[in-house]
Design a protein that fits this description.
This protein is mostly helical. The protein is built from 3 helices and no strands. The N and C termini lie far apart (75 Å).
């Protein structure tokens, strides 16, 4: 009887480590997806900022808030999808709030 209790404990620890590793892979996929999306967005952001800055200098704060609003609306639209996760949306919105305003400010200083 003692042997079966130990076996049950070992099997439960193996099962929980499998669940943790499966969850880690899932989190890694989410982070890679966000990184790729942010990279593509940053390229578009910089190019369009440069073009607008040629015609309207010192427009960085309005430009960044326009980008932020459009991104948040896009994320809120994605939430309606059945396989989209709320945590992913919140992380994306938080990173965009920090990214767009800071990026536009720094670009304004550089360009």
């Amino acid at each position: 009887m003692f042997f079966f209790k130990n076996l049950k404990i070992e099997l439960s620890s193996i099962n929980s480590s499998f669940i943790r590793s499966k969850y880690s892979v899932y989190r890694l996929k989410i982070m890679i997806k966000i990184a790729i999306t942010k990279f593509a967005t940053s390229i578009l952001f910089i190019v369009s900022f440069y073009v607008i800055n040629l015609f309207k200098p010192d427009f960085w704060f309005i430009y960044s808030t326009i980008w932020l609003k459009s991104s948040v609306i896009g994320v809120l639209g994605d939430i309606l999808k059945p396989d989209y996760i709320i945590e992913e949306a919140l992380i994306s919105i938080l990173s965009e709030v920090i990214y767009f305003i800071l990026a536009a400010f720094i670009l304004n200083l550089i360009l």
